[in-house]
Amino acid sequence: MFNTSLYASRRSRLISQMQRGVAVIPTAPEVLRNGDAHYPYRFDSHFHYLTGFDEPEAVLVLIAGAVPQSILFCRAKDIEREIWDGFRYGPDGAKEKFGFDAAFPIAQLDEKLTGLMGNQPALFHPLGAHAPWDDRILALRACVQAQVRSGITAPNEIHDIRMLLDEMRLIKDSDELGIMRRSATISAAAHIRAMRATRPGKMEYEIEAELLHEFRKNGAQAPAYTSIVAGGANACVLHYISNNALLQDGELLLIDAACEVDGYAADITRTFPVNGRFNGAQKDVYELVLSAQIAAIAAARPGAHWNEPHDTAVCVLAQGFVDLKLCHGSVEAVLESGSYKRFYMHRTGHWLGMDVHDVGTYKLDNNWRALQPGMALTIEPGCYIRPAEDVPQAFWNIGIRIEDDVAITAQGCEVLTEAVPKAVTAIEDLMRQP
Ligand code: GLY
Ligand code: MN
Ligand code: MN
């Protein structure tokens, strides 16, 4: 059952923050892949957050002020096109189901928008997100300006609507957290399936196929990002996506993969032995990354600032790198010089939501912002060791990352992805099962 009032209340909150003016928020364009084939369509996240409407060629217009209004422009009903491409709501159907004050065919956008912009003091738009839209909206504003001798004025302020929307999306409501739990649960099941399917002699893409199977079998619409299935040395390539190598006995397999459900992403990484048993060096590095990850999760609580989980993970890793003779000198010197970055060169997490790297600033007034209930983020420390003369050979080509998704609660955080095993014994037990 579509929750009309949820989306209407998001629009009302945005309108009251605009105070006055008109907002124009288009959904994403369809993108041609080649010939007549398009990439799978994915709506714009801001547009979907405010409407729940996922057809292409649609624009939301909001009017703030004494008489607030939500107006949708969408594809007209067209039986001929619906025979080829499927159902479309049309303005009347969309107005009824999605709860807009008015809806019009998208072909009327320019004409109606010129009228709606007239005498408005401010224009709000995702500026710079899509250059053709910037050009079109500024051209329409110029048309309004041209009516000056009729006594009509054009908006003389232009704001990036994302300043307001990003802040709203940063704090997830209970409906959003419910969807995120579903995408986390399906993604977790996919990782467990992948662990069970892995053995020496398989190809990375065979394991990728297991992940995709589990996503779709459970109703996820798509992967949230291109899956990384990286055996052995490939795990030391942070954005490895070729997924076409043979999995060999004695190597680790790093999988960073998750699905999107109803517009919300999960983001999970697990690293485990291809043959089901960690060797000594692998276990040493794995236990180190795991202890950094567990400590970082404990640091993700309300009132902590954004960087506390990262700082915590880095301290644990730096101590471990010294203990394992990967880094030399005191832990303080390793932290101070940043020499740990040779093995841990990325950050410990990012906001998570409709986008896998979700919207929201990380600093306010140049200070790391405080974590608050409803914020969702990843915790994903790692260690990537390339062969080098000054590195003990047993560690060469070990690449490990462990990534979970957490939502900040009043007490601490909820780990949305905890169903995937990550303790050494839990992984080995799972992989031993027939
Ligand atoms: N999968 C993308 C990331 O972990 O940031
Ligand atoms: Mn991530
Ligand atoms: Mn990831």
TrEMBL record:
One of its GO terms (molecular function) is aminopeptidase activity. Residues 2-134 form the Aminopeptidase P N-terminal domain. Gene3D superfamilies: Creatinase/methionine aminopeptidase superfamily (3.90.230.10), Creatinase/prolidase N-terminal domain (3.40.350.10). It comes from the Bacteria. Keywords: Aminopeptidase, Hydrolase, Manganese, Metal-binding, Metalloprotease, Protease. Its cofactor is Mn(2+). Coiled coil: none annotated. InterPro entries: Aminopep_P_N, Creatin/AminoP/Spt16_N, Creatinase/aminopeptidase-like, Pept_M24, Pept_M24_MAP, Peptidase_M24B_aminopep-P_CS, X-Pro_dipept-like. The keyword Hydrolase applies. PANTHER family: XAA-PRO AMINOPEPTIDASE 3. This is Xaa-Pro aminopeptidase. The gene is pepP.
